[in-house]
Amino acid sequence: MNVFRNQHPSETCLKIYNTIENSEPKWEIAIGCLRQPEFVIQHRLDMRCPLWNYLLKVLYQYCTDSNIVKEVLNLFQIQEWLRISNQAEIVEYFLYHAYRSCFDIHKKLLLDLDIVNTFILCKKFSLVKIFLKYYLAPRLTLHDYKLFACRIPLQLPQIRPHVLLKPSLEGWMSRGRNFRCVQSIYISNCRHLMDADECLCLLWRSIPDSFISFGEMNRILTEVLPTCKIADIYKFYSESVDAGQNCCQPRTLMHYCRIRIRRTLSNSRQLSPDGISCLDLPSVLKSYLLLSR
């Protein structure tokens, strides 16, 4: 396994790697390494170090004890690792064992952030689907709200953050709805990327809010974008979330039931594929609770 590729690892990293590769069971040696204060102090903040990915992959391949995985989750900067990781199978591994061990990943965040929002901002749309199997819905945080507003001008230079935040500041839209509009505009501007449409769909399946109307989006953007551009953004949004003619109307009763059941499962720490599979429901309803199309 060429863990370090073209990088030049330290002597300590090479020693750890060789020790694990020549030992059984590998995961016990990996855990022992992670438990060493010297290693944690030296490498904790450097989540790009290839040794981290190697150690986490060893755990993924060989360790099935949720309490041990919980211990590991307490040892490293999960927020930074999730931000840079593209390893969907290991992300799901950690989420599964976090669920099994009652570990709340959000409590490990250094800032007032929501992990799903972080994935969206980093354009890791495929990871949103994994997270929403275990988490109710992305939360509104003031930090994320401002981050989305600041990122859109990088996509569309003619837009300034204050334009996007104006609806809530002027009082004609709640901050929560303004946030969902800005978030949806951001994802819609990433429509050329894989899984952007599914991400937008799952996001709106996880929340009770009524769909955004063209009038709302147009009112936000009309001063800075031509109508045809706004129409393109809205077309992607409405097709992704399957809004149809129901914009600004309450969502269906079936959808509200889904939100309520998912919230109840989340409050009882049962929101997961395993938890939903235990429900005495037809498979089609179980899929519906998992936000499947």
UniProtKB/TrEMBL annotation:
InterPro entries: SOCS_box (IPR001496), SOCS_box-like_dom_sf (IPR036036). Pfam families: SOCS_box (PF07525). SMART domains: SOCS_box (SM00969). Residues 249-289 form the SOCS box domain. One of its GO terms (biological process) is intracellular signal transduction. It comes from the Eukaryota. Gene3D superfamilies: SOCS box. This is SOCS box domain-containing protein.
